[in-house]
Automatic annotation (TrEMBL):
Pathway: Lipid metabolism; fatty acid beta-oxidation. It comes from the Eukaryota. InterPro entries: ClpP/crotonase-like_dom_sf, Ech1-like, Enoyl-CoA_hydra/iso, Enoyl-CoA_hydra_C. This is Enoyl-CoA hydratase 1. Belongs to the enoyl-CoA hydratase/isomerase family. The lineage of its organism: Eukaryota, Metazoa, Chordata, Craniata, Vertebrata. The gene is ECH1. GO terms for biological process: fatty acid beta-oxidation. GO terms for molecular function: delta(3,5)-delta(2,4)-dienoyl-CoA isomerase activity. The keyword Ubl conjugation does not apply.
Amino acid sequence: MPAGLLLFLRLKAVLQKCLPALLCRGLYSGLRVILQPMSSSAASSASPYNYESLKVSQARDHVLHVELNRPDKRNAMNRAFWREMVECFHKITDDSDCRAVVVSGAGKAFTSGIDLMDMATMLQPQGDDAARLAWNLRKTVVEFQETFTVIEKCPKPVIVAVHGACIGGGVDLISACDIRYCTEDAVFQVKEVDIGLAADVGTLQRLPKIIGNRSLVCELAFTARKMMSDEAKSCGLVSRVFPDKGAMLESAFDLASDIATKSPVAVQGTKINLIYSRDHSVAEGLNYIATWNMGMLQTQDIVQSAQASFEKKTPKDITYSKL
Ligand SMILES: *[C@@H]1O[C@H](CO)[C@@H](O)[C@H](O)[C@H]1NC(C)=O
């Protein structure tokens, strides 16, 4: 091959490789100049997580702590809460710095459930006839369901730490979480029948998948009786019980922190596939993960993890790229 042609081809290869990066960098710095005033003003508010009913803080590296934060109302779920949970977990889903979440309640109890004042407005839907009323009411219920479904849709593991009362909507909330811890004084109550309705934001759908004891689930849901921490542990609703809230939170943060050291490609793929498998047959689940992993097996995280293990290191010693 003539030397000139060879040189041309090489140059072309080099350019093809570098040009997009150079262009992007140029574009990016250009954009940065344009966006500067905007982004700096946005960054001036300390945390992007600012809510009325929730308090979000960074507990450990890559671990966010979401607290139900209406302690004087026993964290009753008001309008702001139903909306803000969705906003908060959407943000967490997109936050590549966050790899695990701990949810707990501020004050004396985890939550007393739905704020009954809100129920009143909810049960007065608008509509010119029965069909339109029903239509609008359905829309409201679906919106409320989303408040807890976002926890499940968020690919980062969510650990919930329950102390004191966990009533009504509280059980709906925790059944959408991945891991449940509680204190010895925790009390769980599927309270909805006592206020005249069938639970409609997740308990009846998710609890039977968590507690493999159908008779017990029915008993709890039909009677609204209290379930104490020892029974919650023995039936598998919670995986650990602690003497007090401090010890529980410390362990929950340790657990979240441990999860956060691992490959986010591995952890988040695991959550998504565990939930998929819960809702599908074994054959469908295997099919789904085969397709999932035809992309995800190509991650650099596997190379890094394998190399670390040859060098007798653990995931803790590796810095995985953000996801
Ligand atoms: C179901 O729950 C009840 C009440 O906690 C318990 O007594 C019973 O042994 C459980 N059954 C099974 C099969 O786990």
